[in-house]
Amino acid sequence: MPELPEVETICRGLQQGLPGCRVKRVEVCWAGCLKNLPADQFQSRLEGCTFQEVRRRGKYLLLQLEDGQTLVVHLRMTGGFSLCPAEEPLRLHTHWWAELEDGRRLRFRDPRKFGLIYLLAPGQIESFPPLGKLGPEPLSSSFTVSCLTRLLAGSRRRVKETLLDQSKVAGIGNIYADEALFLAKVRPTRPANSLRPAEVQRLRRGIRLVLENSICSQGRSFSDYCQVNGSQGDYAPLIHDAGSSLCPSCGGAIEKIRLGGRGTYYCPRCQR
Ligand SMILES: [Zn+2]
Fold first, then answer.
1. Over 80: is that where the pLDDT of 50 sits?
2. Catalytic amino acids?
3. What protein residues have CB closer than 5 angstroms to ion ligand 1?
4. pLDDT of residue 244
5. Which residue segments constitute the domains of the chain, with CATH numbers given?
6. Is the C-alpha dihedral spanning 37, 1, 131, 9 positive or negative?
């Protein structure tokens, strides 16, 4: 599932290639991904529009159009965009695409079909419920130690589940929660409100470090995620789904457990 670093990488790719481009024509192959409009309205409202800028909030992509509309996208499990020449063959599971005036195509592809697409009218973004519920951005200056302390102190759930709660912190998913807890030397099953001040500090640093490192590597290298230009990311997780199953810090065996239904990896010697 694309998490903050993958969505940020896609966002940067779109931001490089889309602003100023006008949509000539829209083709919808599978309307099930369009969550607030039927296909014909989606097409007619997007055709003729010019992209202004692309932003990210949590795991959401926000494609702002010059006329005030916003295309809001959640990639969920396997969604992704490509920006490619017209002659590039259409890949299987492409659900809609936009022909740009310069001839390129913006294509949305999603094999598992869980992705969500909303085309919001001008002004609707301010009151769009999913965005209003999101917690702070972990790479923003407002994500301070005291901010994380408050978030964790207010939760009796296990610390990993708290990190996955998008209303607490926006953008962290299963992989980067495991990675950040490993760097913080905190066991994922600990109650969130049991972390000591030094552990909260380490956790904040760990969260920011793994997210920044992964963004620098253009996101994780896994099968269904790719950048806008079609290439994969290079980030290899330290502990999550690690092939060797040995801890990179102590060399001991990595444990895999189920936590809240999610495969969770940790080192029982390093993480307390
Ligand atoms: Zn270890």
1. yes
2. 2-3, 59, 262
3. 247, 249-250, 252, 267, 269-270
4. 64
5. 4-132 (3.20.190.10), 145-266 (1.10.8.50)
6. negative
